Amino acid sequence: MYRVATLSRHGPLGGTVPLITPLGAVHRTPLLVTITHKSTSTEPVVLNFQDTKAAYASKSTFEIIRAQLVLKICGQSLIVDNNDKLMKFGKAILPGILFERLMKATFYGQFVGGTDVEDLRPKLMKMQEYGVKPILDYSVEADLGSDEASEETEQPVIDPVFQQDDISSDRRQHKIVARTYPYKGEESCEANLKIFTECLETAREVCDEDPFAAIKVTALSKPNALLEGSQFLFNIRTLFEEHSTAYADTVPSTVNLEFLPRDVLGSRSLLNMHRMTRDQFATLTSSTTLDESTKEEIFLSMKPDELGRVPFYKFREQCMPGPPVRPLYTALCNAGVIQPLSQVNLDALNRLEERLFRLSELAVKLDSKLLVDAEQTYFQPLIDFLANKMMARYNIDKVHVFNTYQCYLKATPSQLIYDMDKSRAVGYKLGAKLVRGAYMEQERTRAESLGYEDPIYPNKALTNSCYHNMIEVILKQVEDKNAEVMVASHNEFSVQYVVERMRQHDIHPRYGGIYFGQLLGMCDQVTFLLGAGGYSSYKYVPYGPVDAVLPYLSRRAYENKGMLQGSQKEIDLLKGELKRRRWGLK
């Protein structure tokens, strides 16, 4: 069932409109969306997800036959579960050029854009003729072996979430995982930086408007530094929550908690509701050697509000190791209240930040956009922190950096609302890419193995509810030009939902700050319908040499196993388009 709530004029949407929050059954009825955008035309924009002629107009008959065959094969569990072995076997028995031709005619051709820029160019130009733009991702990756991840952490691990184990140390042995970059010294990080730089430059070269490139933070530093940095930030947040109080009057005016389901929000108070008072700060620092005048100086430097309260981001700033070194950080470390970052990992994280800033500066120079991919929960606190630091510096007048929010995580509502509130307070624009999430099996296995709470919602309905409610949370910011959002979803109902809310908010379909994205080789009935309807529609386009992209293809098959097995509707649409062409139907 769906809960329908009518929001008041003073609610988060600024008017009386229906908010549909999916709480139960999955939407299965055919979708026919008719919408009108006053800002562009008085004629309705019709998005009919059954319209195969429009969905596959850019495809040759061969490409449609290939898509139908490949998606059918990918729907077979036995093949997907053993796809890496099958590809290695094929490579072993076929001469190199024959294997390459076979891959290009099948799986590589379906899911990968090309080997290099020149190979990409014709496909991308054709896509853009049909209103679809690329998100470029240079998808060369390597298998990470245990010998490359055996380095011990320099600091003791306090929370099990950040403890190294067989799953986090050797992520390639666990099938359904994100891309992994083996750390072989700072040279490998610089090589990955060069790859990301070339990807940004290529995106600018081949994309006419709003080019995107995707990056992964784990490619630019050693895993132990990322783990220790994430644990440090997690501990700072825990310390703040233990010495602060949640206040109802601190909820952003654009967020109405009354209409955010409690089962999505969870039992804990939102982070942005918490404030630390002078007395709570005094209690926190009571075991340190700071004198009273220094404590007062530090507290006032955090610029408390008129009620003498300090938000989390101002407190965290005083707890960072620098440079410059903060007196509060030194005092809390000396008193044993927090565990200091090791110098070797601190140096590594400073180099990581420098690399990310270089990429951000290039994005600004090229007038392009960076998508910072989400990763596993034990890396995510640091990724969120760095992505927001990038946004605070480079998203002043225009959004150039996007952070990714995984809506199957219980922590996402608190994190997104906090980031949104902070961006408004500090004065930069938020870039948010909303996804459901890709690492469910790995996250749950790890949580069970190490004995901490499963970070993922218990069912798909709650994930869907989180996704649509986070759209509602950020939509007003988009309307006010304070944020932009990438709706990365293959779910037709979610796309329909966002399109309808755009109409109700009178957000321009192409230039309103809302982008839609799907993977290359999948869900063309959504991507190309949106492009034809004048929306800012994107395909996530991986590229790279055939041999080097095989690990990517294998990983994608595992990650999207459920999605591919549920692609019967897409197969039926492809079959219908072949029939339409055969009989010359309009």
Strand order of the largest sheet: 5-6-10-11-12-13-14-15
What share of the residues lie within helices? Answer: 40-55%
So what's the oligomer here?
A: single chain
Integer average pLDDT: 83
Largest sheet: 8 strands, parallel, barrel
Question: Proportion of β residues?
Answer: 5-15%
Secondary-structure-based class equals alpha/beta
The number of strands is 15
Rounded to the nearest angstrom, the radius of gyration is: 24 Å
Shape from CA axes? Answer: globular
What separation lies between the terminal Cα atoms?
Answer: 37 Å
Number of helices: 25
pLDDT < 50 runs, ≥5 residues = 1-44, 142-158, 167-178
If you had to describe this structure to a student in words, what would you say it looks like?
By secondary structure, the chain is an alpha/beta fold. 49% of the residues lie in helices and 12% in strands. It is built from 25 helices and 15 strands. The chain has helices spanning 52-55, 61-74, 77-81, 83-93, 96-105, 107-111, 117-129, 166-169, 186-206, 223-242, 262-265, 278-284, 292-301, 312-319, 327-334, 343-365, 380-394, 412-426, 440-450, 460-479, 492-505, 524-532, 546-559, 561-565, 568-582, and strands at residues 2-6, 18-22, 32-35, 45-48, 132-138, 212-215, 245-246, 274-277, 309-310, 369-372, 401-406, 430-435, 483-488, 514-519, 537-543. The strands form four sheets. The chain has an eight-stranded parallel barrel, surrounded by seven helices. Strands 7-8-9 form a three-stranded antiparallel beta sheet. Strands 1-2 form a two-stranded antiparallel ribbon. Strand 13, helix 21 and strand 14 (514-519) form a beta-alpha-beta unit. It is globular and about 85 Å long. The two termini are 37 Å apart.
